[in-house]
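Anyone up for a design puzzle?
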């Protein structure tokens, strides 16, 4: 199971409300932040890196084609929600970094 789907299967409101404390080498101090903010940052930051890769490929003369996921990922292999997803429960199963899971591969 892709890591993002495994994480999504465990996420609920109580978990997102918890804080994570770690030592940041960049800030050279202990940092504490809510998991809901860190999960959001995780997905937002990977978008930043995809943009960097796109810029490097373009600068190297490579054709990148369309990079909008809704245009690139065929409907038959679209990412699906975990089987235990319910309305009101956060869904993180749309992680673009994880391999797509089609309904036939569940």
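Challenge accepted. My sequence:
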């Amino acid at each position: 199971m892709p890591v993002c789907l495994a994480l999504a299967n465990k996420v609920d409101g109580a978990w997102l409300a918890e804080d994570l404390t770690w030592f940041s080498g960049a800030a050279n101090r202990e940092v504490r932040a809510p998991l809901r903010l860190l999960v959001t940052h995780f997905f937002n930051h990977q978008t930043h890196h995809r943009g960097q890769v796109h810029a490097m490929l373009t600068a190297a003369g490579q054709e990148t084609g369309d990079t909008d996921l809704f245009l690139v990922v065929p409907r038959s292999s679209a990412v699906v929600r975990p089987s235990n997803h319910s309305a009101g429960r956060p869904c993180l199963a749309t992680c673009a970094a994880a391999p797509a899971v089609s309904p036939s591969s569940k």
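A detail worth pointing out: The longest strand covers residues 19-24.
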